[in-house]
Design goal:
The complex is a heterodimer. Chain A is mainly α. Chain A has 20 helices and 4 strands. Chain A is 71% helix and 5% strand. Chain B has one domain (17-450, 474-515). The chains are: A mainly alpha, B mainly alpha.
Chain lengths: 492, 517
């Protein structure tokens, strides 16, 4: 029992609240301080994390005993790096936010802080109801962040975003309550503890419809192919720091939910719907890659590439193979790590192209900006899973897993690896090479904040490329596996 | 002479302690009316509202004094009984009454109709609700319904020089009377079928001396359900709601939306779970169908509304559907969840209505959605309560509405009505469209309407003008703002720390012993 995770959880939220009280120009830096402190705490946590030690830093208290909701947080091999990723990526996002002028800056910083708290809560929750609370709560700050500070069509975009995602998560709310109530033995006290729910799986019939409700919620959040309708609008309209964290971190909450909740708690249904989920994953990969190739707006290239990359992650999860699961978790981290600098780069490119982030207005920047080009190239190559990057290891594991369980899907998905190269290289080429764009003012990254924000992220990418075992070692501890065709359990 | 003596000898035993809250409000109504005869600004503006608050405060105190857990205790034999269900819900009536006093204090309706008349009628209506909440008998049930409704008809029309207000009162009168007549017919048939008027006796008779499929009984139940559905604005008997809510003076709308709905659910809970619980298999599917229709109709109807009052009316219809789901379940948990939701419903709706009242007094758009444009930067103290109320009504976590829905869904699943739980969330999805629109208007539109621009120093010189006045600054209505802020704070507080209300709901759940079996 420790309050360790509670500190990490509430620190950003408190910093956000403080930002409401300080003078306007200090608001951003108050939040930055909060996110840096949070990051420092998570690094200490990483240092103290015991490999293979199961659930650690557990906090388990009654919250609403009448409904059986417990304040139960914990970190294990599955969510350790996701928590760190969250803490890490909110730092550049809040610095980028602090450097810009906003209308009503204090409110902006408060919502940024609250959103980090909500996302951290969703990653750390070990109680299904608590997970649902944070999962839904996440939407409130993003609703305001996109709706108040977004582009022209922000209200439309944010309403669409919230309705899509909340429709999914309300279904999940019903499913979660139903799961808790039905898994409780008659006369027993209702419990939403994930560990308890995993020990008492429901009968097949109820598992199936619950699975569908959960899957819809998580696939919308990702977004995966048929449920991605909110994505283009939200990506186009959201302010850059917001879409950075949304794409890099928040999109992982959904797929994380599959690993944390669906596979352990609904094992039979997971096996039953395996092929369906694999099909969705493969279609997402192909659809996302092809559309990413044909976009002219830089943000949408990343948006559709996310659809493809999350397709890979879903593929790994539903290969129901230990290797695949491990690769999926690894790929969640990798995708977050490359997406964040890519969005920062889009921001830099837009500044140099007179505020436009369309590829048509860019081009020819590499010549005068070698550092920017170098950074961009490193990140782009990591995104397309060049051998030598951690992404390569991640995708390799996912494909290994898929080949072992369902070879057909593995073969089709392999095409996605090639397609990733196609759209990323096109993106790089059109922005950095090609004839110089009409109004491009090319200059290199300034030594100050511009380089300072992105350099650490690139260093992390390079470091993990050199030593991916740092991740694999710790993720090893938890991975879903199919023992036989009827039951999927979690091995330690 | 002898008959009189016999009657006196057989006079019912009255538990004066138990009936004291009812005395407080009914007596308060009389005192308020008398006090209002005193002329002069002080009596009208201060004394009468103060007396009303005093009566309601006394009723709250007496209800808490009477609080006990467990089964009902008769106070007027066979007619009224008190139990935590009656006491708990009457607390909600009294709190709504207090909020209405604040909301109405500067309203034009109050000046038009006279302070004493307005507050006297309101207390009378609350007395009716109190009777309704503790009715143990078909006769008292009907007396309660009428005592509740008749003052409300007048209150709706209390802004006597505005046509829409009169129209609203008349509409409510006509439709309310149809509802009452239907209910009375149903009650008569139930009496005809069972031969009893007491709830407990009716319940005993059903299944024993009366066949469960007795057409007389079933017709009676159906008609009574329809009559009560009119009062609770359950679809398809909801058609009056938007019109009446829109036309009535907004403080009265707030009172109707919260207190009347709570009273209607008090009697629905008592009538179905106490008198008719043995016939649950007969009425549950029908009520479930009504709940689904209500959820869908209410939420779809609200989407197209541009008037906040109409929108809240439709949203109230939808919320009635959610609560009806709790009744359908017919278990102790369902009763608790419904009572709990009613309390949550009070907080979030009063917060929303407070903002509507504050805005319609100063905005040229009245209660239109446009009156909220740019409120986020113009007046955050009003924008936040509205935001919280909307998020809570939509069921976002960390607000009271989330816990309420969670509780209702778990009661539904627990009673093997899982699909009704899913219907509740489907309804919530639809509701996002219009609740989020309100938030978007407040926070995400540029500030188009300027508040009356005056130098800061001059602000104090503008006298707070009662009611409708473009000069009145929102800050000139501290009482409305105060109530709104309290309700919004409660919405958040009980969304995070709901345990105190769960204890109350648990006590309420012990009220009806028939559910234990």
């Amino acid at each position: 029992m420790t309050i360790y995770l509670s500190i990490i959880l509430f620190l950003p939220g408190v910093a956000g609240m403080l930002a409401l009280l300080v003078p306007r120009r200090l608001a951003g830096w108050t939040l930055v301080t909060g996110t840096l402190l949070t990051l420092a705490y998570t690094i200490v946590m990483l240092a103290r994390f015991k490999i293979g030690g199961g659930m650690q830093f557990v906090t388990d208290d009654n919250w609403i005993s009448e409904l059986g909701i417990r304040y139960h947080l914990g970190v294990d091999g599955l969510n350790l790096f996701l928590v760190i990723l969250t803490a890490l990526l909110w730092v550049p996002a809040s610095i980028a936010a602090a450097l810009r002028e906003w209308d009503r800056p204090r409110l902006f910083m408060m919502f940024m802080g609250l959103s980090e708290t909500a996302v951290l809560g969703a990653f750390m929750a070990q109680d299904l109801a608590l997970f649902v609370v944070f999962f839904d709560l996440m939407l409130v700050p993003f609703y305001f962040l996109v709706g108040m500070w977004g582009g022209e069509d922000r209200v439309y975009a944010t309403t669409k975003l919230v309705i899509y995602t909340l429709a999914g998560s309300l279904l999940m709310l019903a499913a979660a309550v139903a799961l808790g109530v039905m898994a409780t033995p008659a006369g027993g006290h209702i419990s939403f503890s994930l560990a308890t729910l995993a020990q008492h799986p429901l009968s097949g019939g109820s598992q199936y419809w619950l699975f569908i409700l959960f899957a819809v919620a998580f696939l919308v959040k990702a977004p995966a192919f048929p449920l991605h309708g909110w994505m283009p609008d939200a990506y186009r309209e959201a302010p850059l720091p917001v879409i950075l964290v949304f794409s890099a971190v928040v999109s992982k909450v959904g797929v994380y939910g599959f690993l944390r909740i669906v596979l352990p708690v609904l094992p039979q249904a997971s096996v039953h719907f395996q092929e369906l989920m694999l099909a969705i994953a493969v279609v997402s990969i192909l659809y996302g890659s092809i559309l990413a190739f044909s976009q002219d707006e830089a943000r949408l290239v990343l948006g559709y590439s996310s659809v493809a990359q999350l397709g890979f992650i879903i593929l790994g999860i539903f290969s129901l193979d230990p290797k695949g699961g491990q690769g999926a978790v690894m790929q969640m981290i990798n995708h977050g790590l490359v997406t964040a600098p890519l969005f920062l780069i889009i921001g830099y490119l837009a500044i140099r192209a007179q505020g436009r982030d369309s590829l048509d207005w860019m081009g020819g920047m590499a010549l005068r900006a070698p550092v920017l080009a170098g950074v961009f190239l490193i990140v782009a190559l990591a995104t397309l899973a060049m051998p030598g990057s951690a992404n390569f290891v991640g995708e390799l594991y996912i494909l290994f897993g898929t080949f072992q369980s369902k070879i057909v899907y593995g073969i089709v998905a392999s095409a996605g690896v090639v397609l990733a190269a196609v759209y990323m290289i096109r993106f790089y080429q059109r922005a950095m090479h090609n004839p110089v764009g009409p109004q491009v003012e090319s200059r290199d990254l300034a030594l100050g904040p511009e380089l300072g924000v992105i350099a650490p992220l690139v260093l992390v990418i390079l470091a993990l490329g050199v030593y991916p075992n740092f991740l694999l070692h710790r993720i090893n501890a938890f991975a879903p596996t199919a023992n036989d065709r009827t039951e999927v359990s979690v091995i330690k | 002479m002898t008959t009189l003596l016999i009657a006196a000898a057989k006079a019912p035993v009255i538990d004066y302690k138990g009936i004291s809250p009812l005395f407080a409000v009914a007596g308060g109504a009389v005192i308020v009316l008398m006090a209002a005869l005193i002329r002069g600004r002080f009596a009208q503006r201060v004394l009468v509202p103060f007396l009303t608050v005093g009566a309601l405060g006394a009723a709250i105190g007496l209800s808490i004094w009477n609080w006990h857990t467990g089964d009902s205790r008769p106070i007027v034999e066979g007619a009224l009984a008190i139990d935590p269900l009656a006491l708990g819900l009457s607390l909600l009536f009294y709190i709504t009454g207090l909020a209405t006093v604040a909301f109405a204090w500067r309203s034009r309706a109050l000046r038009e109709s006279g302070t004493g008349e307005f507050f006297g009628l309101m207390l009378g209506s609350i007395a009716g609700m109190t009777i309704l909440g503790s009715a143990e008998n078909l006769i008292t049930l009907f007396v309660g319904i009428e005592l509740l409704s008749i003052p409300l008809y007048v209150m709706c029309a209390s802004d006597v020089r505005r046509e829409t207000s009169l129209e609203s009162g008349l509409k409510y009168l006509v439709i309310g009377s149809v509802g009452s007549a239907t209910l009375l017919y149903g009650l008569a048939l139930i009496y005809g079928a069972t031969g009893h008027t007491g709830f407990a006796e009716i319940n005993n008779a059903i299944g024993n001396s009366v066949n469960l499929t007795d057409p007389l009984l079933l017709t009676g139940i159906a008609l009574a359900a329809a009559g009560l559905a009119f009062k609770a604005s359950v679809a398809p008997f909801h058609a009056w709601t938007p019109d009446v809510y829109e036309g009535a003076p907004t403080p009265v709308t707030a009172f109707m939306a919260v207190a009347t709905k709570t009273a209607a659910f008090a009697v629905i809970l008592r009538f179905f779970l106490e008198a008719l619980v043995s016939a649950q298999e007969q009425w549950a599917p029908a009520l479930a169908a009504l709940a689904v229709i209500t959820i869908i109709v209410g939420n779809v109807g609200a989407i197209a509304q541009n008037s906040l009052k109409r929108m809240l009316a439709w949203s109230g219809v939808a919320q009635a559907g959610y609560m009806l789901a709790g009744v359908v379940v017919g278990t102790q948990l369902g009763l608790q969840a419904t009572a709990f939701y009613l309390a949550m419903y009070l907080f979030m709706n009063l917060a929303a209505f407070g903002v509507v009242i504050a805005r319609e007094r100063v905005s040229e758009h009245g209660d239109g959605l446009k009156s909220l444009e740019g409120l986020g930067s113009a007046s955050p103290l009003l924008a936040w309560p509205m935001t919280i109320a909307m998020l809570s009504l939509a069921g976002f976590p960390a607000t009271a509405g989330f816990i309420g829905k969670f509780y209702l869904i778990s009661a539904a699943v627990d009673g093997n009505w899982a699909w009704l739980g899913v219907m509740i969330v489907v309804g919530s999805m639809l509701s996002l469209v219009y609740y989020l629109r309100v938030i978007a208007v407040m926070w995400m539109t540029p500030l188009k309407i300027e508040l009356p621009g005056r130098p800061r120093r001059a602000r104090r010189e503008v006298q707070p003008v009662a009611g409708w006045s473009p000069e009145a600054d929102p800050r000139a209505q501290p009482e409305v703002l105060l109530v709104t802020l309290i309700m919004a704070a409660a919405t958040i507080f009980f969304g995070i720390v709901p345990s105190p209300l769960f204890h109350l709901a648990h006590d309420v759940g012990t009220s009806i012993s028939a559910l234990f079996s």
